[in-house]
Amino acid sequence: MKIDEKSLYINHDLCKACGGKCCLYSGCSYSPRDFKGMSLSSLKERLDSGYASIVAQFDVFEHNISYHLCVRSRGLGRDVVDLFSAKNTCTALKQDGCIFPDEMRPHGGLSLVPKENFQCENHYTDKIAYQEWIPYQKVLERLVRLYTKMGSEEKLREDVIQVAYLLAYQHTGVKGERLFWRTDGFSRAERELFDTLNAIIPSYRKEIELGMTQAKNKLLQK
């Protein structure tokens, strides 16, 4: 979708001086407005390019545990369906910056307002993305099934187990039969993931406990 260049907050000099800290932290979110007609084929074309993934955006804004499927620029080494994982460097970030011209970048990137102190402000928040993608859950669900051969809830529960395992294995110790967290070693992305994991415990307790048990067993083998 062609973006009105008058509405962009682009400052290439500031972004070059910064080095793309936001892109190193995470790929930016797509809006449905970035796609032509929001058809399965237009979404699949971008997903197949290797530069976008389907993710699960949780609603933790009002403390109810629900999620919607959204599309975000793909992180390095991540799959086309990457529902729940720690954010990492965007695949579109290269040595000279983003590979996409301004008008082809996701809405989340175009809505980032550069600041002189590099404390940039994003006008396309996760909450806005969550709300904008609500009408398109059926088409995203079809794509999840197409790529993974399972529904989004089954895939998400699989991802929650893996996240709980990785965080616990990398950031806990064992005293007797109990795990204790070393949260001071968290990266920004891991802290965000850990906070979300805690928020979704009521709905995914079994998966979280399973992942942590797997981590504890692995640690005890050391």
Oligomer: single chain
Fraction in beta strands:
5-15%
Number of helices: 9
Q: Ranges with pLDDT <50 over ≥5 residues?
A: 1-6
Could you state the order of secondary-structure elements as H and E?
A: HHHEEEEHEEHHHEEHH
The value of Rg in angstroms is 18 Å
Structural class by sheet pairing and helices? alpha+beta
| End-to-end Cα distance | 53 Å
The chain-level mean pLDDT equals 90
Major beta sheet, strand line-up = 1-2
Whole-number tally of structural domains: 2
Number of strands: 8
Largest sheet: 2 strands, antiparallel
Rough outline: globular
Proportion of residues in helical segments: 40-55%
In short:
By secondary structure, the chain is α+β, with helices and mostly antiparallel strands. It has helices spanning 12-18, 21-25, 40-48, 107-110, 126-132, 137-148, 152-171, 188-199, 201-220, and strands at 52-58, 67-73, 93-94, 97-98, 112-113, 121-122, 172-175, 178-181. Strands 1-2 form a two-stranded antiparallel ribbon. A two-stranded antiparallel ribbon has the order 3-4. The protein has a two-stranded antiparallel sheet with strand order 5-6.
